[in-house]
Write a structure and sequence with these properties.
flat, two-stranded antiparallel ribbon
């Protein structure tokens, strides 16, 4: 998995959480699969407060 690409995804995910802080109680992303430059969240669940 490309570290730079993973770092970009984590930064963008962090910004998303910051932008929607009052609307999100919990997020579960599992699994996150990476091969080369391609990184995919296979399943994700977002719950509201």
């Amino acid at each position: 998995m490309a570290r730079a690409k993973l770092a970009e995804i984590i930064a963008r995910f962090s910004q998303f959480l910051s932008d929607h802080a009052g609307a999100i109680a919990e997020i579960d992303v599992n699994p996150l699969i990476g091969r080369g430059e391609k990184i995919v969240a296979v399943d994700a669940l977002i719950t509201r407060p």
